[in-house]
Design a protein that fits this description.
With 157 residues, this protein is α+β, with helices and mostly antiparallel strands. It has 3 helices and 5 strands. The chain folds into 2 domains: 83 residues, no CATH class; 61 residues, Nucleic acid-binding proteins (OB fold (Dihydrolipoamide Acetyltransferase, E2P), Beta Barrel). The chain has a 5-stranded mixed β-barrel with strand order 1-2-3-5-4. 20% of the residues are buried.
């Protein structure tokens, strides 16, 4: 029992070092991810550090740090994410811009092969996701892009 008491006293005495290590670790991970999640966890660890300086037992420090981190993630992170993405251009680009783009089948399009010309002027290797082939000259719409192949479906307007 004496060894356990000494261990608990050691943890209680040096908990502030553990909080500082967690804060530094979470900040480094945040710099690599840039998602604000680990920033909120570091804020929770700061709350744990403050409660350690006040003299609260370690198990209460952990509970307070976890609750603070959860509150920061739930209530502070969403407005920060919105503010970060506020100035972004909402226009789709690259492959995302091709989804829902219309075109014409240049060759019969099957589940194995085909070729289409999209309304932006690009010619793509194409496949259909259905077993029914799309005849040459039929209007199509792009559903997905897989590598250099467009998956298309017929337009039935």
């Amino acid at each position: 029992m004496n060894d356990f008491g000494t261990f608990v006293q050691f943890i209680d005495q040096w908990a502030w070092v553990g909080w500082l290590v967690l804060i530094a670790l979470f900040l480094v991970i945040e710099m690599l991810t840039l998602d604000f999640t680990f920033l909120m966890l570091s804020f929770g660890s700061v709350a744990g550090l403050v409660t350690d300086f006040v003299g609260v037992p370690v198990w209460v420090q952990v509970l307070i740090a976890a609750a603070a981190a959860a509150l920061f993630i739930l209530f502070l992170r969403p407005p920060l994410i919105r503010r970060l993405h506020r100035g972004e251009d909402p226009t789709k680009s690259n492959v995302d811009a091709l989804v829902d783009l219309r075109g014409i089948a240049l060759q019969d399009v099957t589940q194995i092969s085909g070729q289409v010309k999209l309304s932006n002027g690009d010619t793509w290797t194409a496949r259909t996701s259905t077993p029914v082939p799309i005849p040459q000259g039929s209007p199509i719409v792009v559903t997905t892009i897989n590598g250099a192949t467009a998956t298309v479906r017929p337009i039935n307007d």
